[in-house]
Structure prediction request, 154 residues.
Amino acid sequence: MKEESQLIGTGFYWEDLAVGSCFHTHKRTITETDLVNYVNLTWLTEEVFTNTADRSDMALQGRVVPGAMVYGFAEGLLLAAIQDVGLAFLNAEIDIKGPTHVGDTIHIECEVIETRPTSKPDRGLARTLNRVVNQEGSVVLTYNPLRLVKRRST
Prediction:
């Protein structure tokens, strides 16, 4: 392999993230297996996620998934945007707008809403508004991560 070979799959450097710019991710369908594995891994075994037999008195019908799981899947879908350039996740507010169900297919729509340099020339701060959108076009979750991101070498 040549020494000058370029690595593919690197995310956005700070300079690539202009306020107002937008991008979106690929899509991912949430399966029953995903839900079962998630609630067992996290011990989030609340009946709303585990009881399929008696749901008549529950506020949410159908196979709903935890908002924390939806957020986790969103971060996974965004990996391509931060791979090798994301240095730290510093802050976010999360707002669950509506239920997500087993069988829903989600993707993330991102808008850069803030950028600023840091005191170190090799990094900057970037905040995005991330909207998790289902197959019907409904926004089911939003969050606004502030990340410490690499700058290009000068």
The mean pLDDT is 93. The longest strand covers residues 105-117.
